[in-house]
Amino acid sequence: MEILLIGAVLMVFAVLASAWLMTFARWFPVKGIDGEFLTDYKTLIRAHIDFALMALFCLGFYAVKVPLSVTACWLVVIGGITNPCVFVIAAFDPAFWEKTVWKIYSAISFVVTTIGFGWVGISLLNYAV
User: Fold this and answer.
1) Which domains does the chain have, with CATH numbers?
2) CB environment 31-55: b (16+ within 10 A), e (fewer)
3) How far apart are CA 34 and CA 25, in angstroms?
4) Which residues, listed in sequence order, are joined to residue 31 by a DSSP beta bridge?
5) The pTM is what?
6) In angstroms, how far is CA 86 from the centroid of its own chain?
7) Confidence grade of residue 123 (pLDDT, cut at 50, 70, 90)
8) DSSP run (H or E) holding 115
9) Nearest 5°: phi and psi at 125?
10) DSSP letters of 33-73?
11) CB pairs under 8 A, 24+ apart, for 55-59?
C-alpha cells in the first residue's frame, strides 16, 4: 500500500509544478509561450485541481489502514497520474480532442482509473460489512 504514498507525493509535486507554471505564466507572460505553447490556461487549472484531488484520494485510501490489494493500489496511482495528464496535454495541444492517439490514451486512463477506484471501493465496502 506504500505505493499510495509514493503516488500521492508525485501528484503533490505535479500540483506544485503546475501552480508555479500557472503563476509564472500570469506574472511574466512570454510571447511565443503564452497563447501559443500554453494554449488553454483553464485546462491547466483543471489538471492542477485533478492532481490535488487524486493525491487526496491516495492519502485517504492509505490513511484508512484497510488492507487493499497491491494491484488495486497501483491502478489507483497510475490512474491518478494519467487522468490529470489528459488535461496537461490538452492545455498544450489545441487539437488534443481530435487526435486518435489522445482519445485512446484517455480511454485507457479512464478504464484503469475506474477499475482501481472500483476495486478499492469494493474492498472498503467488504471491510465495512
Assistant:
1) 1-128 (1.20.120)
2) eeeeeeebbbeebbebbbebbbebb
3) 7
4) 34
5) 0.89
6) 8
7) very high
8) helix 100-128
9) -65, -45
10) TBTTTB--HHHHHHHHHHHHHHHHHHHHHHHT-----HHHH
11) 55/7, 55/8, 55/11, 55/12, 55/15, 55/80, 56/8, 57/117, 58/4, 58/5, 58/7, 58/8, 58/11, 59/4, 59/5, 59/8
Closest among 116, 38, 49, 108 to 84, alpha carbons compared: 49
DSSP 8-state assignment for residue 95: T
Residue among 126, 109, 124, 114 at smallest CA distance from 62:
124
Region 70-86 average pLDDT: 97
H-run or E-run covering 14: helix 2-27
How many residues are recorded in the chain?
129
Which three cell numbers, joined as nine digits, stand for 75? 491502478
Cell of 86: 489528459
Residue bearing cell 485510501: 61
Q: pLDDT tens digits, residue range 81-98?
A: 999 999 999 988 878 889
